[in-house]
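We treat protein structure as text, and this decision shapes the records that our systems exchange. Because each token names a local backbone shape, the row as a whole describes the fold. An entry from our holdings is shown next, in its original layout:
>
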Amino acid sequence: MAKKKAKKSGKKRKPNAAFMKPMSPSAVLAAVVGSGSMPRTEVTKKIWGYIKRNSLQDKKNRRMINADDKLKSVFGGKNQVSMFEMTKLVSRHLK
């Protein structure tokens, strides 16, 4: 079998402008990530930092996030959500 060679181009990959656009978090989300405008990528980093600091990842199934009081309001009252569902629920709180 022949190995595929990776293409090397001189161009750097540009970040998607939609992800880098500063967004304003709702009051509920601002309690977790802060109130300043920031891109979606930064919001996601801050939420994961909060989850790690407070040990909110499920011990058995690491894809599930256990909500504390602050995150429960962001997650629409759910006690536990998957990490994939979390991004959908968080996007509702960004404008």
Remarks:
- Strands lie at 64-66, 80-82.
- The chain is about 40% helix and 5% strand.
- Residues 21-91 form a domain with the MDM2 fold (CATH 1.10.245.10).
- Residues 33 and 45 are 9 Å apart (CA to CA).
